[in-house]
Amino acid sequence: MAALRPPRRALLRLCRAFSSGGCQLAPERGGERRDAAPSRVSRFCPPRKSCHDWIGPPDKYSNLRPVHFYIPENESPLEQKLRELRQETQEWNQQFWANQNLTFLKEKEKFIDSRLKAKGLELRAESGPRK
Questions:
Q1: In the Cβ-directed half-sphere of 126, how many Cα atoms lie within 13 Å?
Q2: Which of 24, 37, 77, 129 could pair covalently with 71 via S-S, beta carbons 3.0-4.6 A apart?
């Protein structure tokens, strides 16, 4: 399957090639309000002339795929409201799942530590020796 994916360099060249005006995509705002989980700036770059929504690679913390929303030139107020609500929902989902996953990983570590201590064992480092 990896052979079907174009190389990253080709994608970046394609993004630069389409960087002149035309159709607009709404900016990705998913990482702006992430307090608990560190934000990651995605290198995902859809062509500027695209007239469709684009879905990027999964976020490292929330495991959700960010969406770059297409903004038509003749977008009606009702369409704009729908797009903005979709963006807000996506941002909320990104934030919620990033925090949820971070909390889960922390609690999982605490649980493993407590179970090992209850059995009188210690954690081992990745290389194998005891800490």
A1: 0
A2: 24
Q: Does the predicted model carry a pTM greater than 0.85?
A: no
CB burial string 3-38: b at 16+ within 10 A, e below: eeeeeeeebeeeeeebeeeebbbbebebbeebeebe
Look up residue 99 and give its two tokens: 């925090």
- Contact status, residue 41 vs residue 32, Cβ threshold 8 Å: no
Neighbour-count burial of 46, counting CB atoms closer than 10 A to its CB (0-12 exposed, 13-18 middle, 19+ buried): buried
Alpha-carbon distance 76 to 57, whole Å?
A: 29
* pLDDT tens string 67-125: 988 888 899 999 999 999 999 999 999 999 999 999 999 999 999 999 998 888 876 65
